[in-house]
Amino acid sequence: MAKLSFPRYFMSILVSLLLWFAPINAQAEVFESHFFTVDLGSSWRVSGRPHNMPHSVNVNFVNNNAKSSINIVIGSGQIQPYALLVNLQKTLRSQKAKVGKIEQDGSLLYFEFNLNGLLGFSCSATNGKDVSSITVLGNPQAGKRLLSEIKANDHQLFPNF
C-alpha cells in the first residue's frame, strides 16, 4: 500500500469533509430569467435544461415531495391567451383528461383539469407584447405557493395568488 504524503493526505481528508458537510451547507437554488426570479427553497428544483434567453423562457420546476411540477413559458408571440388555452384543452382532452371551462381573473385566463387522477391548472396572460403559459400538475396548492413567491418583472404575465 502506497504511503500518502502529508499534503495529499490532508487534501484527501479536506475533500471528504467538504463532501460530508455539503448537504448541510447547501444553499437554496434561485432561478433567474429576464421575466422573473424565484427562490426554489429546499423543495423545488429545475428539471431538465431550461431555455432561458433574453426574449423568452421555458423552464420546468419539480417538487418530488409534493408530487408537483410547474412549466412556465413566456415570450413574444402572436397567439392570444384564450387561443393558447383552447389548444391546451384540446391536447389534454385527447389524453382523456377532464377539463374545466376557461375562466377569467382580471387579465389572467385559466382552467383546471384532472389528467388520470392528477389535478392541475393552466393559465395564460399577455402584456400586449409577451404571452405567458403556466401549467401546474400534481399538487395545485404546492404550485400556487411557489408561483406566489415569484418576483415578476411584469405582474401582468403571472397569476396573483
Number of helices in the DSSP assignment: 3
Run of helices and strands: HEEEEEHEEEEEHE
| SS-based class | alpha+beta
- Name the poorly predicted regions: 1-26
Major sheet description: 8 strands, antiparallel
| Helix proportion range | 25-40%
| Gap between N and C termini | 63 Å
| Mean pLDDT metric | 86
Oligomer: single chain
Residue fraction in strands: 35-45%
What would you call the shape? globular
Using DSSP, what is the number of strands? 11
Rounded to an integer in angstroms, the radius of gyration calculated over CA atoms is 21 Å
Folded structure, characterized:
The protein is globular. The chain has helices spanning 6-25, 81-94, 140-148, and strands spanning 30-32, 36-39, 45-53, 56-63, 68-76, 98-99, 103-105, 108-115, 118-126, 130-138, 151-152. The strands form two sheets. Strands 3, 4, 5, 6, 7, 8, 9 and 10 form an eight-stranded antiparallel sheet that branches. Strands 1-2-11 form a three-stranded antiparallel sheet, covered by helices on one side. The chain has three helices and eleven strands, in the order αβββββαβββββαβ. A hairpin with a 2-residue loop joins strand 7 and strand 8. It has 161 residues and is of the alpha+beta class.
